[in-house]
Design goal:
Largest sheet: 5 strands, mixed, barrel
Number of helices: 5
CATH topology of the largest domain: OB fold (Dihydrolipoamide Acetyltransferase, E2P)
Number of strands: 6
Order of helices and strands: HHHHHEEEEEE
Strand content: 15-25%
CATH class of the largest domain: Mainly Beta
Length: 227
């Protein structure tokens, strides 16, 4: 590979990755992968890479890089292009099924919303903080989430909570009493209205369950990850 062309490989790769990070930040792609609090950091890193690419283009490194190094830079460039052309589309249901449900949320709630205003995550935190199911029988429920099936269980409505990104995602879910003629489809996002009830599990334990009265399919939210 000629010297003038080889000298452009490094700034080209840095520029492509910088553009990929900036594009991901501005387009909302990061909402599927990362908590919103970290989005500005990704954008700043993208701008820094673009600035470094300009610097490398104006002042290329002295000496000629080996063929192996040039191939490595070209491979990184191809990966950056793939990131731009192939937006992330994770299966939340598959991820939730493969992860432990050891919820890392706060053990105590500082403020409890009225039942009809609680999100699915609010309900899970409340039920784990105050697990007596008799406290919630008859409470109205208005929640949304995706359908997933825990190992050996029945389809639930769930969400993914993250501290940082999908790598540390933890699934949370609520058991649903589905209408007899309704077949929930995995990975489908639903809005459910109903009320809380109490049921006894096969092991004899009592638990809260959502009796679904109105079910509506909804698009995946722009920010599907819960803090």
């Amino acid at each position: 590979m000629g010297q003038p062309v080889a000298a452009l490989i490094r700034p080209l790769t840095l520029g492509l990755w910088g553009a990929a990070l900036v594009l991901s930040t501005l387009s909302g792609r990061l909402d599927l992968l990362l908590r919103g609090a970290f989005h500005p950091l990704v954008g700043i890193c993208g701008v820094a890479l673009l600035a470094l690419a300009v610097q490398q283009w104006l002042q290329p490194a002295a000496g000629r890089e080996s063929v192996q190094t040039q191939r490595a830079w070209l491979f990184c460039s191809a990966m950056a292009i793939a990131v731009v052309l192939a937006p992330p589309n994770p299966s939340f249901s598959d991820l939730a099924t493969s992860r432990s449900e050891a919820f890392n949320g706060p053990s105590q709630l500082e403020f409890v919303l009225p039942p009809s205003q609680r999100t699915l995550t609010d309900w899970v935190r409340l039920l784990r903080s105050q697990p007596d199911p008799q406290l919630y029988v008859g409470d109205p429920v208005n929640i949304s989430g995706f359908v997933y099936t825990p190992n050996g269980g029945h389809p639930q409505l769930g969400r993914l909570t993250v501290r940082c990104c999908l790598a540390d995602a933890t699934p949370i879910g609520l058991p649903i009493r589905w209408p007899e003629d309704y077949k929930p489809q995995r990975d489908t996002w639903l809005s459910i209205r109903g009320q809380m009830a109490m049921e006894t599990t096969a092991s004899g334990a009592r638990q809260s369950i959502v009796v679904a009265q109105q079910i509506k399919a909804i698009p995946r939210p722009a920010q599907p990850l819960e803090p």
